[in-house]
Amino acid sequence: MGSREENTLNNDGQNNDGQNKADGMSMIVVMGVTGSGKSYLINRLAGRQVVAEGGTLDSCTQDCQMVPANIGNSKVMLIDTPGFDDPDRPDADILSDIARVLAAQYSVGFELKGIIYIHRITDVRYAGSSIKTFEIFKRICGEEALKNALLVTSRWNEVDEATGADRERELRERIWAYMLGHGSCMSRFHGDRSSAVTLASQLLIKDPVVLRLQHEMIDEGKNLNDTTAGSFVDDGLEKLREEYLGKIEALENLKGELKESDRAMKRQMQAEWERERAWLRKTEEQQGSLRRDVYEEVRSEMQDKTETKPRGLKRLIPLIPVSLNLLSMFVGIAPGSIELLSEWFSDITSFEG
C-alpha cells in the first residue's frame, strides 16, 4: 500500500491502487440494538449455528465477529456487531471496533456491499437506545451510501399482523423516512433462511459502497472523534462529563458547609464524591479512545514486518488468502466458521496469497 494520499477512495467503492476486489469476496455489516436478532439473522445466512444467539435482551456479541456464508454463488463475509446499548462495553469502544473493521476492509480490498440494520417490530416505542443506535448507524453510512442500507424489521412471529403493520407504517413514515427518501430499502425478516437470503441478496446485487465514516477517516484523515459518527458519540460523552463535574462541584461545596461534628455525613459525601470522580475518569478515558487516527493505526499494523510468526487465520488455515488473513487481525472469526473457511480455501490454485 502507498501513502494515505495514494489510498484515497472512489465513489464506486474502489481504492486508487486497484484494490477493488479481494478474492471475489463481498462483505455485509449487520447492526442493530441488543436483542434485535443480528446473530440470529447471521446464523440463518450461514446455514448453521455459528455465533451465539440471545434469547433475552442481554448481548451475546461483545466484539465484532466475522462469519463466512455462501449466498447463491457469492462468498460473503458477514460482520456481526455489538449493539451500542451494550451495558458491558462503552459506545466509544464499540465504534472504535467497527471503525477498525471498516478501515481494514478498505485496506484489503473487500467489496462492502452494504449494511443491514435490524429493528424489533415488537418494540412499542422507538426510544432511548434504539434512537441512539440508529443515529450512529445513519452517521456511519452518510447520505451518499444510504442506497446500500437495508432497514429490516424482525420478530414478526411475536406480533399480530395488524399491530406489526401499524408499527411498520410509523417507521416508514416517520423514523426511517429520511433514509428511505435517500435510497434505503425496508424489508421484513421472517426468521428462516429463505427470508435471510432474500434480504442479503438485495445488497449483493448492488455496486460496492464507501461509507461516510471511511471517507472521513481515509480521504480526509480525520481522527475518529472528528468524524460525523465519532463526534455524535463524543458529544454524548461531553454532556456526561459536564454532569459529573457539576455533581462533583456540588458535593465539594456541601462538604465545605458541613460542621466538623458531622463526620458520618462527611464520610457519605466523600464516598459519593469518589464515585462521581470514578465515573468522570471513565468518561474521559472513553473520550480519549476516540481521539485517534484509526486508519493510520490499521495501515501501520498491516505494514508491520517485524512479526515473523503466522498471525490471524494463517495459524488455523494455512491456505487462506493474504487479504482475509489481514482482515482477521482486526475482527474475530466466529469459531463455528473455521470449517467453512477451510472448505472455501482447500483449492489454493483459485486464490492469490
From TrEMBL:
Single GO cellular component term: membrane
Signal peptide from the UniProt entry: none
Please name one Pfam family that this protein belongs to.
AIG1
Segments of skewed composition (Low complexity): 10-19
User: Where are the coiled-coil regions?
Assistant: 237-271
Q: Is Membrane found in the keyword set?
A: yes
Q: Just give the chief location class.
A: membrane
Q: Which cofactor does it need?
A: Mg(2+)
State the UniProt keywords alphabetically: Chloroplast, Coiled coil, GTP-binding, Hydrolase, Magnesium, Membrane, Metal-binding, Nucleotide-binding, Plastid, Plastid outer membrane, Protein transport, Transmembrane, Transmembrane helix, Transport
Q: Which residues form the AIG1-type G domain?
A: 28-159
- Report residue spans for region: Disordered: 1-22
For the biological process aspect of GO, one term held by this record is: protein transport
Membrane topology type: Single-pass membrane protein
**One Gene Ontology term of the molecular function aspect:** hydrolase activity
Keyword Cell cycle among UniProt keywords: no
Q: What is this protein called?
A: AIG1-type G domain-containing protein
The organism's taxonomy opens as: Eukaryota, Fungi, Dikarya, Ascomycota, Pezizomycotina
